[in-house]
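Q: Sequence in, structure out?
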Amino acid sequence: MIISLVRMPADGLKFRHQYKAGELDTRDFEFKFEGAPSVTGRVDRAGQDMRVRGDINAEIAAPCDRCLNKVTIPVEIPFDLFYSPGDPGAGHAGEHELSERDLDFAVYENDQIDLDELILEQLELSLPSRVLCREECRGLCPQCGADLNLEQCDCKAEIDPRWKALADLKAGMEENDK
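A: Exactly. Output:
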């Protein structure tokens, strides 16, 4: 969704957009959309800068980190961000330190703001660090790949050769206890 700032009213601009299937490109992300995401909010002028705030609502699907089954995650994300006009003549060569203000700002060019990037970024940041279908998910067998939530496989856990001496010691101690 592109917001044009050319004829923006002095008292700001409200926006609402319901995305259609495939309108947001998620190929480079670890999630897909279950339903059509929507965004609502407003843009206000703050000098040369623009303040964009609102809410993103979506249902996203990501694979479980243990068993790879699809997990649907409902998300409602508030956002509040400032956009500064881009300086096409500014060089980006070399290193420079970012200030606290730089972390809350994005850049707009050609008097328009592209909200698609903001939405995809916020959705990716909202994903939990570990996506699980359920807390007690047993995952996949590392030998045969069976889903241990659905079936029990007959694979024996291979002992790392570095730990074999300890495993033998433990087995010997268990025999002596009998």
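The chain has two domains: 2-126, 138-178.
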